[in-house]
Structures are given as C-alpha cells and as structure tokens.
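As a next step, the fold was encoded as tokens, giving this record:
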Amino acid sequence: MKIAQIAPLAESVPPKFYGGTERIVSYLTEELVAQGHDVTLFASGDSRTAAKLVPITTTALRLNPHVQDAVPHHMILLDEVRRRADDFDFLHFHIDVIHMPMVQGMLDRSLTTLHGRLDLPDLVPFYRAFPDHCLVSISDHQRLPMPPVNWGRTIYHGLPADLLPANIGGDKDYLAFLGRISPEKRPDRAIRIAMAAGMKLKIAAKIDNVDRAYWDREIAPLVEGNPLVEFVGEINEQQKAEFLGNAAALLFPIDWPEPFGLVMIEAMSCATPVVAFRCGSVPEIIDHGLSGIIVDREEEAVDAVHQAVALDRARVRAAFDARFTAERMARDYVALYQDIIAASAATPSLARHRAATPGLLIA
C-alpha cells in the first residue's frame, strides 16, 4: 500500500527526548516500511526515517526558539498533505483535530489515531460536528468520555522488539519513575512509596515550564537532601534501556485517565515489572500478577513493590512480546486501512452518509 503518515510538528520523528506521539509514529512508520509498504512521512525536517520524508519545518517546533505559534506551521502541513493526497491509498493522521474539515472528502481512505485524553469539554461538540471520520483509540478506556463517533478499532501501541532488550539477571536495587513531572503523574506518590518500601528511587523526567512551579513547591522539597531519591532529569531513547532494565520495578502512580501509558510497555520490554495505579488504561495494559501489580492506594503500593520485585522477569518480557510489539501494531493498522477501503468500495456513500450503514466500522 502507499500510505501517508501525518505527524505533529512539536517534536521530530522520532523525538530526541520526550514525545510519546512522535515516538509511536516513528515505530509505526518504520515497521510499515519493513513490512513492504510504500510510506511517506509528513513531519519536521530533522526527523529520521526509512520512509520518504516530506519536511514541513526545518526543525521540531519545540526546539525552535523563534516559534511562537504552532498553528501556521500546521496549516502548511495540511496544505502539503492536500496537494499530495491523491498519491496515496491511505492517509493516517496523528494531529488530533485540525485536519478534520479538510478530509471530509477522503473519509473512504483516512483515519485519525487519538493519542491524548478525551475528557475535555471542548471536544464533545467538535466530534459531534465530525461524526463520520474513522477514529482509532489507543485504549478502550480512552473512549469513555466521547459522544457517539465512528470508532474503527482500539489499537494498542507497540515497540520494536529489539529496541529495549530484556534485562533479566543481576541485582536490581532501585525503583524507577520515568516520564514527566506533573500533578497527574504523581511523582510525590512515587517518592512516598519508595521511602515506605525502603528502596532507592531514581526519577528520570522532564519538567515543562507549565509544571515548574509544581516542581518547586511540591516535589523539590521531597528530593533535595533525600538519600533515597535521585533526580536524573530527562533521558533519551538510548538511556532508557539501562535506566529501566536495571530497575527492580517501575512505579506508575498516575492520578488521571491515562489514554495508554507508553512507559509501562517500555518497562515490560526491559523485563521490568510495573506497579501501577488503577487509572485510565492501566487495567488493559498490565496483566495483574504477571507483568505487574495494579493498586488503588499508596498503602497497597508499598506491599505491591515487594510483590512486583518477586515476579518472573522472563514472563514480564513474554507478556510484552505477546501484545505490544510494533509488528503487531502495524499489522493491526494495515488490517483497518484495508477494512475501511473495502467497506467504502462496497458502500460508496459511506464517506458522505455513514448513517446509511450504521455500525459498519464500529469495533
């Protein structure tokens, strides 16, 4: 198939540091190429890919100090996609909402993966206004706040099988927290859990400007002078294997409706079990007692740390291999691309009048 992957421009594909959406776009794009498809990636010019790259900006917008407004750059992106749209059998968007009016005439060969949270009030009238475009959720829980829309499928994220190798042997003497310093990620919980469990905690996380006050007020006082807590800072992809692989367990103490939680499967790939709070997608990703322990309260999490450390790390990796590889993710998407094309061919009015064939693409 000739496939277009349309990425956001905030980060390169793959991102140099934090950037979950762009990372998944990269894994998907490279795997589609490996599976023999003709893929074109629309992304920032500093992206790296085996696909054909259409560079929209010179660098990722977050790394360009001169960029004050991302919208004009995404308008250029959309115009470039529009001009080339007839070159592709299928167009796969990862840019949330901004393209929806443009693709109304392409509903028979396009879909959008929704990578973020959907419990925001402004999204309800938007998706009611565009009910026909095929949407992909990254967990079943992510769908819950939405009005009736044209869900194509839930497709879980996947990682290249050789990206983060399993680290099964050796002593693992610390707990890990990886991601972003923010109130919903609850690094404060991670610190208290580690201290109560009597284990060292290493925090590898970025601090966005919007969360700087939260760090200064809530987290820095818990870190500074604490012999059990080490703040590593933001790490790149190459550093993750060592950071996660050498950890006894990953703490994922979130307090928000997490749409997926990429760090959970990154840990699983390293054969590192996860202690996670029962929020959002967590019960869909973690097999309780196999790849990690799911808890509801901090008190449970302290005991769960010791349970998780005792889990068979080979089985943790096996759970990853069974469910969360990029190969599986790409095949799931290709199957959906083909289903949409076939359904539209069988029902030519589908793109304009989904109501005439209710539920045809609903999973």
Observations:
- The chain has eleven helices and 13 strands.
- Residues 174-322 form a domain with the Rossmann fold fold (CATH 3.40.50.2000).
- The two ends are 23 Å apart (CA to CA).
